[in-house]
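INTERNAL AUDIT FORM
Audit reference: QA-55
Scope: verify that the stored structure record matches its stored sequence.
Auditor: D.O.
Record contents follow.
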Amino acid sequence: MDGWTSELARFAVHAAGAAVLVWLTLGPARPFVSRFAARVGAMSRGRAMAWAVGLTLAARLALMPVVHPVYDADIKEYCEKAAAIATDGNPRAQETKPDGTRFYRTLGYSLPLAGWYRVVGTPESPAGRMRAAQLFNLACAAAVAALLVALGAAVGRATAGRVAASVYATFLPAVIFSLLPYGETYATLLVVASVFVFERLRRADGATTLVLGATFGLLQGLLLVTRTEFAWMPLLAAAWLAKERGARAFAPAAAGLVLLLVPFAVNHEMREGYPGHLRTSVQSGLILYFGNNPIEVNGYGNATPDVVKAKDELYRRDPTGGLAVDEAVAWMKEHPLAVVGNAPKKLYHLWLAEPQGFTWHVAAGRDPGTNRVLAAALRHVAWVQALGLLAFGVVGLTRRGSGFGFWTACVALHAATWCALAASTRNRYPLEPLLMIAAAAWLVRPPDEPSS
């Protein structure tokens, strides 16, 4: 309880800061917001994209010399896996441990990173691999910014899309994770691209629907071998399309299903002979067990030492993680009320807790590492930004006549998924650009958006 008391006290301080941010945005700063929206709204689409991409790259390049990621843990694994794929065509050399066991994450992020390594030359040194991965993430972030401009136009909120792209450019959680070789920036690109294609599909007719359906399916396949917790997204999209288009949804949905299977086929080929389902992995039962066990559920993606010890024993007996899954599911069936009672903890760590990437990820206060004062300042501002975005985004999504029903369902299903796991704030990052457009659509209400 002491831990939660301290945590909630820290949250309250930053929530107060977010309340001030909301007040400033709706009050004293409202004229500035309106003038800025009018300025970006008056730009041509090409110029707006150039502005969004330029601002996105500038913010990240400005911090790159002073933010120093640690080449360890997930970063090391992603980069070394990508290097193995680039040189050997598969990740087996990296995934097979000295004792013969295998521990592997999803291939999704390392696959495109391997392609990037092939283009720029596979770096041999950790520093070279890190820098090349950062540049790949910068390219993904720039693509996200451009897509936000396009997505805004696709849903009839052109000005909101441009404002959202500007927010994304300077949103510190996104900025920092662009500089960390993690999969969140790439996953964000796939989510935003998927939503953009789906919104185009909802409004298309004729043969174009087949092309868009196939494109959506391919993007979803890439997403699911990267972040398998989005498995609900193609199902939701198919149901939504069927509701709106009836029998005409069958052909694009079928085309999407065919293309969705392609990344899984590639994943299967690269991991043929490995144990596990579909030759893929999301660390298997680890996160499910952390979120559902008889020892302690703190709701956070990094469990307590006693839970980690129990997990290690389960993995020693079954390296695929299947035993951890079985024990977690059995505990959930026996303690349904406890599962429900733990959900608020997980939602807190998903949407309200301190943004990740500002402490050990960047060696804050260490030498060599990121300056402690700078890292702390960035962390506090990022937390205030994140809470402010959540407040504006929820209003933007749920207000009457917003037209963001599909996006709202995506956010709700994503939250429900993580209520069954053990969440971290970075798990929400791929969906935050949708909140940015929804928030901007409510705040600026430009001429291209009809009033509700």
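Auditor finding: record pair retrieved intact. Residues 2-284+353-444 form one domain.
Action required: none
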